[in-house]
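Researcher: Here's the sequence for the chain we discussed earlier.
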Amino acid sequence: MSLSFLRGLLVATCFGMLAGQAQAATLSADLKPEAGTLKLGVQPWLGYGQWYVAEDQGLFEANGLNKVELINFNEDKDMNAALASGRIDAGNLATHTAMAMVAAGLPVKIVLLLDQSTSADALIADASVKTLADLKGKSVAYEEGTTSDILLHSALAKAGMSLADVKPVPMPASSAGSALLAGQVPAAVTYEPYLSAAARQGANIHTLYQGSDDAGLISDVLVVREDVLKQRPGQVLALLKSWDAAYTHFQAQPEQGRAIIAKGVGADVGELDSAFAGVQFYSLADNQRELQGSFVGDTWQHIIKAAGNAGILPQPIDPEQILDTRFVDTLK
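Model: Thanks. This is the structure I predict for it:
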C-alpha cells in the first residue's frame, strides 16, 4: 500500500481518532478482559497459525475472551484499510508494513513479535532462470508493498541489480505462484502454503532466494489500534496470553497443531512439512528477550534500510514510535 493511500485513509476515516501513544491504565497480569468482540485480521500465512490453534482449542475463552473474530484478508492493502477505518481492532502484519503504517500517521502499535520466516518466503523460478542474474529483463510476479516486495529487492541487490532491471508484474501473493505454474511469468515471489503448492505442481520450479539468504529480514508482528489499547487493555493482555498458550500447546503436540494450522490456511498438512520448518514462532519469553535485544537493534535497522530501498518506508521509524511492550513486560 502506498504512503499517499495510507494518508488518505487516515484523513477520510480516522479524523478525530486518538493520536500519540495510548496510555492504558496500569497493567497487571490478572487484568480482566473487557466485554465485547475483539476483531483480529489474519491472512493465510503459517506464521499467524497460533491464532488458529487458540481458536480450535478454546484458548481465547480460557483466557477470558468470550468472542474473538478472526477476519481473513487476501491482500495486505485490504487489512491495512480495515485497520485504518476501525473495522478491525488488531491485525497481523509484516514488520515493515507496520512501520509504514505508523510513518503514514495511522494510530497503531506493535505489541507482539509473532514469527520469522527463513524458507517460507521465497523467490522461485522455472528452468529458464538458473541464477539471480538470469532475472534481468524478465517478468517477476509479486505483491507490492509486502514481504515479497522486500525479498525481491534484497535478491536483486545481491545480484547487483534493481527493480528497473526486471519487469514487475504486481499481483496478490496467492496468485503469484499460479502465474508461474501457468507460464505467465518465469519467476515469482510468494510464501507458504503457496510455495509448497507450486513445488508440487511444477517439476522444474526451484528456489532462487529465500528469507534465510537475508536473515532477519522477514518477520511479522501483531499491531493493535491505539484506541483499543487505551479502552480495552484487558482484551489485549488476554490476546497475548492466548497466543502463548497456543504456542505451548503447539510445542507439546506439534502434529495436532500443524493439522489445525494447515486447515486454517486452507492447505493439506501432509504437504507442508518443509513449510513449517521454514517458520520460527515466537513465544512470550522470546518476545521479552527480543524486544529488549537484537530485534530492536541490528534487525530493526536492517528492516528499515531494506524497506527504504524498496520504496515502502520513506523515513526511518524508531522502536519507541511504534512498540508498546507494556503487555509483554506485564506477563514476565
